[in-house]
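Quick bug: Iron ABC transporter, permease protein, putative output formatted oddly.
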Amino acid sequence: MRNATSERTTHPVLTFWVIAGWVGFCLLPWYMVEDGLLSFEWLRDGYPFDEDYAPAAFLIAQGKKLWLAPLLIALILPLFALRRPKSDPWFARLLILSGAIGFGWLIAQGFSIGIRGFNFDWLAAVFGELGDRQFGMGYGGMITASAFLFLLTQGVAARGAINGDVFVVSAIGGVIAIVAVFVFFPIAKMLFAAFVTEDGAYSIAVFADKLFDDRLWSLGCFAGAKCGAAWNSLFLAITVAFLTTALGLCFALMVTRSGFRYKRAIRALTVLPIITPPFVIGLALILLFGLSGSVTVFFAEMFGVQPTRWLYGMPGVIIAQTLAYTPIAFLVLIGVVEGVSPSMEEASQTLRANRWQTFRTVSLPLMRPGLANAFLLGFIESMADFGNPLVLGGNFDVLSTEIFFAIVGAQYDQGRAAVLAMVLLFFTLSAFYAQRAWLGKKSYTTVSGKGDSGVHPLMPTGLAVPVMVIALGWAIFTAVVYGMIIYGSVVELWGVNNSLTFKHYITAFSVRFEEEGIRWTGAAWDSFWTTITIAAIAAPLTAAVGLVTAYLLTRQNFAGKNAFEFGTMLSFAIPGTVIGVSYILAFNVPPIEITGTGVILVISFIFRNMPVGVRAGIASMSQLDKSLDESSLTLGANSWQTFRRVILPLLRPAILAALVYSFVRAMTAISAVIFLVSAEYDMATSYIIGRVENNDYGLAIAYSTTLIFVMLTAVGMLQLLVGRVQIGRRTQQVAEKST
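Here's what came back:
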């Protein structure tokens, strides 16, 4: 009896978070140290008695920061729950009370007290001048806040929420909290600027004037004039989404449903554009198709016509964005196309359907989740992109560039930028709900717990020919563009002096071997190592958050699920320029003071790129039969064990897509990075842009080319690390041998 009671009252997860809360409160620096979270100089610089590095308990003991004292009550309460069984009503009550008091008080005091004392005049009027200040949360504050959050979720689970599943309730609570803090809060702070007048008041009339501006909604293009930026952006996004989805499907079919021998080369080639800074692709296109471009001049001389500037405007932006975002569609679709059950296709052929009928009536409908998600990502990426329109747009105005100029231009009109961002958000959310409506509530399950050793049939000839022609044609075009990029990195002065040289690489990445060791003397090394470090930290975190979120969306039903999914897509729908500015506005003062640190770069990458992991995970998990989860739970595994041992091994394409995309986008991001870099944390793209602004194109291209090869190596390593899904299917070659 004593052993049974002991088992019922042992709560290892609860014990962990109780200990974490006390450690954060009593042992770790409560506030952000001067050198940022990534520095540990505080261990030998006045810790734990120095006010800047002291834990909360030491501050209170010294009579300082007494507004932290109420947190002791919230830390003591869960101690009384440790020896109670979960069935005891007081177990849930104590945890909910502790979490609510602790987390709520942290939020209240964090926003009420800043670096100059009280943040609100009415608090100073009620309590008088504070005579003290506080900075942003450090290790202690963050760990203690996390402890309170997960104490609260464990209490909610103990009351029976979602069948009392601690992992699911904690995952939902954790994702909601971080999305609220790092997505909703900064964006809301930015969008409120849409209603602010010049004297700092709020006015709906100001918002309406900016919303219904002719520059935004004009239909003058039908009368020979310019169309508004909103209509330009919408048409561009639809066109690019359609083209990238079609090309991504062609590549996925060629790799999985054809006898093409060079599939690995095609996989590598389709990934190239997303590991390249966007403006580099634009420069290569200008070299090929610009007014003095090699292709333009060749055809002008051949046909005796005057070269034109046809590239600048919508055509050039469409080409550049299609080059840049086709790999995203391919990464999403490859897992979905591979995931279609061969047994269903074989059953169709057994019933005397030919290969075309099988593809059209069986295979293609089962790919709808992937097609819908690829289209949505292409649409959103096109809407939010500003690098390509900035280089190639000419007089073709789009929302993202208008937002950029409203923020960084002479006008510095945050209100106009916020209104434009709201319009852009409306378009992207409309696409999101249109996608949901198209998919409906149909089942796309193709992988169950049953054995499936079939082999995918080859494409029908009538489909294979156009697919191969389109895919190979685009692959050759991509190879030509990248040939121009590599060529541009080894010429003296691009377009002027084409003599070959390696001086740009030497300037950027020279190394000197001295007695003390290796000395990195190249001008680009500092930004290179910073970029590698930030991307390596952000990529696994992005994939983890994205796939856990996808699991919750596809496998769990809970109140507010639609709002939860909306929140996960919100940061992806807002241009990076807006994300950058909103992060500066939100996180340069307490309670989260991380502007100018490496942490803000990591966080911006996580929440900017997380939706790709979410959409790839949803597309892949839609094909996994829920009976797999149910079987695992029936055999005694909990939700965490089921997710880790059953679901994750079947999500390797989605994991690879999330890791690859988040890593390379962190390496090549431009828009948000421009606002968030600092002297200590300079990223590769901001360094390259600086070289371009100084007309040092050779060094910029050499640096970009180096990044391309580094990221190709990283993608290959991630492929080996993650591996392929093993579900007992034969390969095409094995099938051919057996027949």
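Actually, after a second look the formatting is fine. The chain is about 65% helix and 5% strand. Closing.
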